[in-house]
Amino acid sequence: MSWIALTHPPDTLGILALALLIEAVAGYPERLYRALGHPVTWIGRLIAALERGLNRGAPAARRLGGVLALVLLLTVTTAVALALTAIAALAGYGAGLIVLALLAASLPAQRSLFVHVRRVSAALRTEGLAGGRTAVSMIVGRNPDSLDEAAVCRAAIESLAENFSDGIVAPAFWIGAGGLTGGALYKAINTADSMIGHRTPRYEAFGWASARLDDLVNLPASRLTALLLVVSAALSRNVSAKGAWRAIRRDAGQHRSPNAGWPEAAMAGALGLRLAGPRIYGATRVEDAWMGDGRAEANADDIVRALKLYRTACALQFTIVVAATGIWLYVL
């Protein structure tokens, strides 16, 4: 079997289906993380090293250094992913698919996202506002001390919606399109944006290329995520598909992010909430449009409803991937 086949559909769709199933069942084992780390931590070390060496000088030099750092990051990531794909192919077709699925299962984060968001709801119920603030600080960058209970709940639900897009649907999309290499490249770009794509004096010039490329590669996933949430709402109780669709059409384009508004608006409309809006990061107040026109007073029960919708959307995504794999194989 040529290893090149494992970088194109339908093989990549088969890899994706297995990877999603493995990750949903097992996540990324803590013992493995302690022993070897995680692809994001490996990528993060490379980005940090490139940043130390190239982020210096005048703004123009920093921007050029950021472009060079991104090119080097993507080159290394591609080389490693293609090498792993070629090695997996040596095991034969079936075994190669399984090996690549196990590797690709480290890229989406269905299980860990669910666990982290559920902790916020549980902490609010058992430890009150202080516990909720601590739990939500693990998944959002805003100042937890500025959050009342409703804001803690909104922050958790917003994080669930946005991370469903860039932490699950986006890596799944790029694994399906390009196998392990496609998924690894996406993860490298997304990690670079999270580390250096900030509008601060240190990173505004250096992280410019990473931030712009991250916006581009997340564009299809953000729209697909919104659609998954609308369809999932139609399949679920106590949520509104019409409300989700209405909020997307009215509010998604008003968000300061070109992508985050789509899943957040869909989630807000489905749950009958208002999400996003003005927020405080550190000591800085960020003005943003509200997504949805429902209640701003979210509560722990709303987090539970959001998680149920999220699980339905994950199951729907898996079903679509399996069906697409079958259709592709039948047509071929």
From TrEMBL:
Q: In which pathway does it act?
A: Cofactor biosynthesis; adenosylcobalamin biosynthesis
Which InterPro entries does the UniProt record give? Cobalamin_biosynth_CobD/CbiB
Location in or out of the cell:
Cell membrane
What membrane topology is given?
Answer: Multi-pass membrane protein
In terms of superkingdom, the source organism counts as Bacteria
Q: Where does the protein principally reside?
A: membrane
Span-the-membrane segments of this chain are 66-84, 90-109, 313-331
Keywords of the record: Cell membrane, Cobalamin biosynthesis, Membrane, Transmembrane, Transmembrane helix
UniProt family annotation: Belongs to the CobD/CbiB family.
Supply the NCBIfam families for this chain: cobal_cbiB
According to its UniProt entry, the function of this protein is described as: Converts cobyric acid to cobinamide by the addition of aminopropanol on the F carboxylic group.
Q: What is this protein called?
A: Cobalamin biosynthesis protein CobD
The organism's taxonomy opens as: Bacteria, Pseudomonadati, Pseudomonadota, Alphaproteobacteria, Hyphomicrobiales
